[in-house]
Design a protein that fits this description.
The complex is a heterotrimer of chains A (290), B (321) and C (323). With 290 residues, chain A is an all-alpha fold. Chain A has helices spanning 2-5, 8-15, 17-39, 80-116, 118-132, 136-147, 151-178, 181-188, 193-204, 206-229, 241-249, 258-285. The longest helix of chain A is centred in the middle third of the chain and has 37 residues, at 80-116. Chain A is elongated and about 75 Å long. By secondary structure, chain C is an alpha/beta fold. The chains are: A mainly alpha (290), B mainly alpha (321), C alpha/beta (323).
């Protein structure tokens, strides 16, 4: 641990405003997602706590705004702040779990394909190539259209689409590690394939994994938001940020901007924070560019 | 070259065959269209009749065989909703979609190429850092938010541009069609910018990374030692090398553009095939969904084909086979 | 005595990084006489490459300072980028280590030779073509006319290095700086390419700086030599003198660690210790931690450069005496 804090990596991290700023956003978003529901004024999905007569109140800094609804209310009289906090939980849940699942599947298939080579390799990679030649948004859109909305379905679908990037990158890394002399030495020493994979190959692909992982979370959150915006993502009863934007979209033209733009801006801020950190990691952990 | 095209053609047929099979299988799991088409109080008999009418009473593989046969005849079935050939419905709306896609592609190239080249050739400059910061915001923006912000700013608040819809080519008094009138341009502008923004940001980042990496190669150092000016180093030597890695992704990104028309067309009420797809999904209009997937697959295969050809033009090491 | 065609005095190149300031080259002086081949020897990281890149303003992200940096009557350190571009390739050209990566993979051989001709000469298309064919046959490439249309990936390493030599010679530069030109080649090809290079220098009365870590190459091809260690020149002089009677303990160590055919060496000599890290240099003589002859003074003070007879210069308090 001490070595980490004295490393060049940590030094550059502290000096990079954007990396620290990104981390702060991520940290705050996680805290809000975890403890937010216990702190916000109301549970927006408990009808006893909402009042229709409070519908479409603007944020508190506008003329008709009220301090009890700092970010205004939506058409059902729900407090926007509470709605956004609840929505961000769902967005984060999907973003993180999809990334973890895609990462595990993709890494496994990538290492396996790269290490085994031959027909296994070309089969896995051919599937990945075909999948990659179609926009992942469209594939997800079709699958979700067929199976209907739902958080679990969305997680499965996005993971199904998401493993490819991991598999391709990890396979490439594995291929280059595989031909290193110490791996061949391990072969000569008679170590089993699994031992070599886990002890020697996997640790060598962690750097690209970290970079891919960070960038993927942001990407998944955006895709989820888009699908939910189109109405084929999360169910109406468990709205993520994307669905909140969709719900407020119709009243945007009447000037009720906060209902849709505020959750939208929160998505942007969240993804931006993740991308800031991801960008730093990419530059820092990719030795090819300085 | 001709052999390559023939090979590619058969590959395309194969891909389409696989796509049709997948689409067919998956879509047979969708909500039963019969209930969509009949009133809720329909009798069992009416339901059974409808099934027979749609061919849904037969086993799956027979349904698929009939489906394939019909496809080969160019008959993709009628839309349940419009009761018109689904293919016709999609093709009717294709020009509108292609219009936005084309304008966005032009916008993307015009903005991303110069900015990406600048950022990649002066990676340490303030200009480059601002461009990269901007592009990071660009890739963090959900495209629906971009569209909504643009509408709110230019249409609702400023009132400069129309909020939605498309202005179709009008026919003038002399009987000629007018293309690209000012009005048409005004309509297509916001949707295209919305669609392009994410691609612009992504392409800038890609070009910058590619160029920056190329600029550190030995042959760049050697070219410099020959006395090649900085400008020619960037445009003559580095850019072409950087493009080899960018071009594939750029081809894919045109596919992304088409995918994201579903969002853009929904926001701007643009009468294209993306919006048709969404409304069809909402009412389980299966034939239209299937045709959309098939048509889009053809487009992607064609794009990939051209990307491959472009690739061989740029990189002599790659042979067509 | 004739004025040297190239003269460098007290050249320093520094980089600012996370670990602090890196002195890649600190206070190196050398000169190149017309028609001679000067060898610059040193281990990797000794600053020999950076020193030469500094001459042509090709060091990225580094700060170059020198008391004198002169080519003929031109002060190199004051040249603007545009003026430097006119000089590079036309007056001084470079050859790099790895022929596999020095050529742009996407352009034909002809295109890459012609580029230099277009930049620095007023030859028309026909004359350029004739010149290119002439160049390729000069570097020993058969059937040069059809070769112009081929791409670098169609050639082996040795052939590529010949093409690179042709490009470097295209505009008749006065000086060639060759940075390990044969290191990346197969042993059998090394001698051929080196021979070709030295012949082309001698026959056309050019001058060359040959950067290498191989003392064998130095003794065979160069007239004078500079031995560099950790960014400093340790010893310089006429090659024969330096090889036969090394005065600096470092040169001596280097020479003793070359395996020899005819002598019965029980065990190859090895300089003890490691090259110091560039951000963590010793205060006194940079070779002191590894030097068998080191005294307390070596630890605290940098040895000044001493001028000896026959143009010999040496930076050591306790040089090895003759005999």
């Amino acid at each position: 641990m001490k070595r980490f804090f004295e490393s060049e990596f940590f030094y550059n991290y502290r000096k990079s405003f954007s990396a620290v700023f990104g981390s702060v956003i991520i940290f705050l978003a996680l805290v809000i997602g975890l403890i937010g529901p216990f702190v916000v004024p109301q549970n927006p999905y408990d009808q006893k706590q909402t009042d229709l007569s409070n519908a479409y109140l603007p944020p508190m800094w506008e003329e008709e705004g009220r301090a009890e609804f700092p970010l205004g209310t939506d058409g059902q009289g729900r407090d926007m702040l509470s709605v956004i906090v609840y929505g961000s939980r769902i967005s984060l849940l999907i973003g993180i779990s999809v990334t973890v699942i895609s990462c595990v599947i993709g890494t496994f298939l990538g290492v396996f394909a790269g290490y085994k080579g031959g027909k296994t390799d070309s089969f896995i990679m051919r599937v990945a190539d075909i999948q990659l030649s179609f926009p992942s948004m469209l594939i997800a859109l079709f699958i979700m259209a067929i199976f209907g909305s739902g958080i679990e379905k969305l997680i499965v679908t996005l993971s199904f689409v998401g493993w490819v990037m991991f598999a391709r990158t990890i396979r490439g890394e594995t291929l280059s590690v595989k031909n290193q002399e110490y791996i061949q030495a391990a072969h000569v020493l008679g170590y089993s394939d699994w031992r070599i994979l886990f002890r020697h190959v996997l640790p060598n692909v962690t750097t690209p994994l970290i970079v891919l992982f960070t960038n993927k979370i942001g990407n998944v959150i955006l895709t989820e938001a888009s699908l939910s915006f189109l109405g084929v993502g999360v169910p109406v009863t468990q709205p993520s940020l994307g669905l909140l934007v969709k719900n407020g979209f119709d009243v945007l033209f009447s000037g009720l901007w906060w209902v849709s733009l505020l959750p939208g801006l929160y998505i942007m801020l969240l993804v931006f924070g993740i991308n800031l950190l991801g960008d730093f990691l990419k530059d820092e952990l990719n030795p090819q560019l300085n | 070259m001709i052999r390559f095209i023939i090979r590619r053609f058969f590959q395309m047929i194969l891909v389409l065959f696989i796509v049709s099979l997948m689409v067919f299988l998956l879509s047979s799991f969708t909500g039963d269209p019969v209930y969509m088409l009949l009133p809720p109080d329909a009798t069992l008999e009416e339901i059974a009749d409808m099934r027979i009418l749609l061919g849904l009473d037969k086993p799956l593989y027979v349904q698929y065989a009939i489906f394939l046969q019909n496809i080969l005849k160019g008959d993709f079935g009628n839309s349940y909703v419009y009761n018109k050939p689904a293919l016709g419905l999609i093709l009717e709306r294709m020009p509108a979609t292609m219009e936005v896609v084309a304008v966005s592609t032009i916008i993307t190239i015009l903005i991303a190429l110069p900015l990406g080249v600048f950022a990649g050739s002066n990676p340490k400059s303030t200009g480059s850092k601002s461009i990269m910061f901007g592009s990071l915001i660009g890739i963090s923006l959900p495209s629906f938010l971009v569209g909504m912000l643009l509408i709110y700013l230019f249409s609702v608040t400023l009132g400069w541009l129309p909020t939605s819809g498309r202005s179709i080519p009008a026919i003038t008094a002399s009987g000629k069609k007018t293309y690209f009138t000012i009005n048409e341009l005004r309509h297509v502008l916001l949707p295209s910018i919305t669609l392009a923004l994410g691609q612009v940001a992504m392409l800038i980042r890609l070009l910058k990374a590619g160029l920056q990496e190329t600029m550190q190669k030995d042959f760049i150092k050697f070219a410099k030692s020959k006395g090649v000016s900085r400008r020619n180093i960037v445009f003559g030597h580095a850019l072409r090398n950087a493009l080899t890695s960018t071009i594939t992704v750029f081809g894919l990104s045109i596919g992304d553009l088409i995918a994201f028309t579903t969002i853009t067309e929904t926001i701007f009420a643009w009468p294209g095939m993306g919006r048709l797809l969404l409304t069809s999904i909402n009412v389980s209009d299966r034939p239209v969904i299937i045709v959309y997937i098939m048509v889009v697959s053809v487009i992607f295969v064609v794009i990939n084909f051209f990307v491959d050809i472009l690739y061989t033009v740029i990189d002599p090491r790659i042979k067509l086979n | 005595m004739q004025r040297p065609i190239l003269e460098v005095k007290n050249l320093s190149t520094t980089f600012h990084t996370f670990r602090g300031v890196i002195h890649a080259v600190s206070g190196v002086s050398f000169h190149l006489n017309e028609g001679e081949i000067l060898g610059i020897v040193g281990e990797s990281g000794s600053g020999k490459t950076v020193a030469n890149l500094s001459l042509l303003h090709l060091v990225e992200g580094g700060v170059v300072q020198a008391d004198v940096m002169r080519y003929q009557d031109i002060d190199l350190s004051s040249l603007k980028e545009k003026e430097m571009e006119k000089l590079r390739g036309a007056e001084i050209s470079m050859i790099f280590q790895d022929p596999m990566s020095s050529l742009n993979p996407l352009y034909t051989i002809g295109h890459q030779i012609e580029e230099s001709l277009k930049l620095h000469t007023k030859l028309n298309r026909k004359e350029r073509r004739a010149r290119m064919i002439d160049l390729l046959s000069k570097v020993g490439i058969s059937d040069p006319e059809s070769r112009l249309k081929s791409y670098p990936f169609q050639y082996s390493g040795g052939m590529r290095q010949r093409i690179i030599i042709a490009i470097a010679l295209a505009v008749n530069p006065k000086i060639i700086i060759a940075d390990e030109p044969t290191t990346a080649l197969d042993v059998t090809v090394q001698a051929q390419v080196l021979r070709l290079l030295t012949d082309l220098i001698h026959n056309e009365s050019r001058s060359m700086i040959l950067i290498t870590h191989d003392l064998g190459v130095v003794s065979k091809t160069t007239d004078r030599v500079v031995v560099m260690y950790a960014g400093k020149a340790m010893e310089s002089g006429i090659t024969k003198d330096v090889i036969h009677e090394p005065m600096h303990p470092y040169t001596d160590g280097l020479l003793r660690s070359i395996p020899r055919f005819h002598e019965n060496q029980e065990r190859l000599y090895q300089i003890p210790g490691m090259v110091p890290r560039a951000y963590d240099l010793p205060k006194g003589c940079r070779f002191e931690p590894r030097c068998p002859k080191a005294q307390p003074i070596c630890k605290n003070e940098e040895p000044p450069v001493r001028k000896m007879s026959n143009g010999r210069e040496i930076a050591c308090f306790f040089p090895i005496s003759k005999g």
